[in-house]
Amino acid sequence: MRPLPQIIRVVDLETTGCAPPAHGVCEIGWQDVALKGERWELDGEGGSILVNPGRAIPPITQAIHHILDEDVAEAPWWHDVARRVLDPYPRRVALAAHRADFEQQFCTPNLTHGANWICTWKCALRLWPDSPSFSNQVLRYWRKPEGLEQSRGLPVHRAFPDAYVTAHHLRDQLNEAGVAQLLEWSRDPGLIPRVRYGPHRGKAWSELDHESLMAFLTDRDPDIRFTANAEMDRRSGGGAVGRGNPQELLL
């Protein structure tokens, strides 16, 4: 029997807001990335489906993705669309999204068959800490991924183009660090390369004095708390904050 192909499906959602069940999905897009020989590459054409969210789309979110109520009035419901996109045959190794915590609010385990998730945002923080920002689009123009067709990645904030761009980031992350490492990083909060705000904004965490670093250990943001604790561990010999060296990436 031939082994099943190794495929990861990148998904992107456009929604009526960010807090289900008050908000619903109005579009889902996807693009697969597959292991071909020893390298990961984009696979297939991908696609998108409009979804009836079962409620009006607020003007503030229409202004982001430009999906109108009349566009989705005759579209299928989320429960009729989600499972066939999120759990296709052959079963994917994992699902992936940029800032996957958002997609996971709507793509619940009963719809994904309990799939593992890779967050390309969290992985970008680890692999490309020198980026000026870590949004999907800033990474697109800062990195200029090989093979990314400009027109297929537009318009921004539509489900397929965003999934297509994210798939290029995922492909390069997989080829740099591997599936197991990306899954591990994705399970943790984000490891933020530089201080985000305050008098030390823009500094590397290693530049902070002990008292300043201690103040971040109780920050409201779980990514900041996680990063500050990681820097404390580093100072006591427990690891590094930021880019791992090649040997670390193999472990």
UniProtKB/TrEMBL annotation:
InterPro entries linked to this entry: Ribonucl_H (IPR013520), RNaseH-like_sf (IPR012337), RNaseH_sf (IPR036397)
> Which species does this protein come from?
Sphingomonas insulae
Q: What is this protein called?
A: Exonuclease domain-containing protein
What Gene3D superfamilies does this protein map onto?
A: Ribonuclease H-like superfamily/Ribonuclease H
Q: Which SMART domains match?
A: EXOIII (SM00479)
| Superkingdom of the source species | Bacteria
Q: Where is the Exonuclease domain?
A: 7-179
